[in-house]
């Protein structure tokens, strides 16, 4: 007799509650959320399908609240496993690693029975946050494959500490935990080009941000999740996630820089989906926002954006739109304005300048910029930068027999670069 496939608990509860299709449950969640005081929540059938799979992701706090309201059962009883240590698998078997139970009011994490009475000192939040802050600084200089495991281990520590921590330290620890998972997700997506893994990590980041009740962190995480479908050309999914990100941003004191970054993210997604006119309009709006400014300050953890980064977005979009002279002017200015610590972004800009030269029929200049990008990649690896270099090489196919292109191939496919790229 074959074993039932998927999360049969949720499916059985859905059908028992009268929702005969996954779409019906998705519609019910979306329509009932406002009645519970939850605004801007939208769930699609694709999400419900993931919940009914063999390994359902742990729903975010607002969705858990609506689900339990509609189906009359707690999330664990619906076949979900808390990613921070629940003692049950979706199928119902007990994990052999520990005996655990949920703490009252703590749905994000569980702790072993013998640890229920343990309470961490009030300093635990600040101490955990200090390590998270150090990882944020190290990201700009340490090899991503080296830093990434350390960040994940730090996040696991945070998951273990969270059930043992009380307010006000708990809020601070949860926010730092969300930032750690966000950084890990950024590395997986931009540095290591692992979009599926990044999606799972960013979901954990969103759950931690929910425990911290930090809407700006939630907005930043949601915007990062939009990159995943956006880069895959799935515009509808990307736009939906950006709507959610903007909704969360309205709930917090978002600065002008934060709102401009949201425009830049959406512009990047639109560019990847071939809508360069829409993208350029978004970038123009972002420039206006930065010029106008606001009374709110940008969060300290948002160290990946500024006017030079916005201009880099703009130059890439101008390139994709075929506005070659404008793209060259924009990108050359970006190269001058980037601070020294922006080594990773520098590889992207050099790659785009190489693409501009190739589009202008100048293979020698293209190879020059692409070679500079390889020099930078040798010092600071960045998968997104290497993607740009490879794109340039494909555009150089009409000149592949010219000496400058052959010399570039020798650089691109030398032993060190080839092995390094395959390793990563």
Account of the 3D structure:
This protein is mostly helical. The chain folds into 3 domains: 1-74; 124-334, Tetratricopeptide repeat domain (Serine Threonine Protein Phosphatase 5, Tetratricopeptide repeat, Alpha Horseshoe), CATH 1.25.40.10; 335-424. It contains 19 helices and 2 strands. The chain has a two-stranded antiparallel sheet with strand order 1-2. Helix 10 runs antiparallel to helix 11 (256-272) and helix 16 runs parallel beside helix 18. It is globular and about 70 Å long. Residues 86-116 have low confidence and may be disordered.
User: Structural class, from helix and strand content?
Assistant: mainly alpha
Gross morphology is globular
CATH class of the largest domain: Mainly Alpha
Number of strands: 2
CATH superfamily of the largest domain: Tetratricopeptide repeat domain
Mean pLDDT: 86
Total domains: 3
User: What is the radius of gyration computed over CA atoms, rounded to a whole number of angstroms?
Assistant: 23 Å
List keywords for this structure.
3 domains; 424 residues; mainly alpha; Serine Threonine Protein Phosphatase 5, Tetratricopeptide repeat
């Amino acid at each position: 007799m074959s074993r039932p496939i998927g999360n049969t608990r949720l499916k059985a509860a859905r059908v028992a509650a009268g929702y005969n299709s996954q779409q019906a449950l998705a519609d019910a969640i979306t329509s009932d959320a406002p009645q519970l005081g939850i605004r801007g929540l939208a769930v699609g059938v694709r999400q419900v399908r993931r919940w009914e799979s063999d390994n359902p992701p742990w729903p975010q706090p607002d969705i858990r609240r609506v689900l339990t309201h509609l189906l009359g059962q707690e999330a664990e009883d619906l076949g979900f496993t808390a990613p921070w240590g629940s003692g049950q698998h979706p199928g119902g078997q007990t994990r052999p690693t520990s005996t655990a139970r949920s703490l009252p009011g703590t749905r994000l994490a569980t702790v072993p029975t013998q640890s229920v009475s343990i309470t961490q000192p009030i300093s635990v939040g600040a101490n955990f946050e200090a390590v998270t802050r150090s990882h944020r600084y190290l990201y700009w200089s340490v090899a991503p494959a080296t830093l990434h495991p350390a960040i994940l281990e730090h996040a696991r520590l945070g998951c273990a500490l969270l059930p043992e921590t009380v307010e006000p330290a708990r809020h601070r620890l949860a926010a730092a935990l969300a930032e750690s998972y966000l950084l890990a997700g950024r590395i997986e997506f931009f540095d290591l080009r692992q979009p599926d893994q990044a999606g799972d990590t960013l979901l954990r980041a969103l759950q931690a941000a929910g425990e911290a009740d930090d809407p700006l962190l939630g907005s930043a995480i949601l915007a990062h999740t939009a990159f995943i479908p956006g880069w895959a050309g799935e515009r509808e999914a990307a736009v939906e996630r950006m709507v959610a990100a903007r909704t969360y941003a309205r709930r917090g004191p978002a600065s002008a820089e934060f709102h401009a970054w949201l425009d830049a993210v959406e512009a990047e997604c639109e560019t990847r989906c071939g809508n360069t006119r829409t993208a350029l309009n978004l970038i123009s709006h972002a420039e206006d926002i930065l010029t106008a400014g606001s009374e709110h300050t940008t969060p300290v953890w948002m160290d990946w954006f500024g006017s030079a980064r916005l201009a880099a977005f703009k130059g890439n979009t101008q390139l994709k739109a075929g506005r070659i002279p404008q793209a060259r002017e924009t990108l050359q200015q970006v190269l001058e304005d980037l601070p020294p610590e922006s080594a990773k972004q520098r590889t992207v800009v050099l790659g785009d300048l190489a693409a501009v030269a190739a589009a202008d029929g100048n293979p020698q200049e293209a190879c020059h910029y692409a070679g500079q990008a390889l020099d930078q990649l040798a010092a600071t690896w960045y998968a997104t930068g290497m993607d740009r270099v490879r794109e340039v090489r494909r555009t150089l196919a009409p000149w592949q027999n010219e000496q400058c292109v052959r010399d570039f191939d020798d650089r691109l496919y030398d032993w060190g670069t080839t092995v390094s790229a395959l390793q990563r």
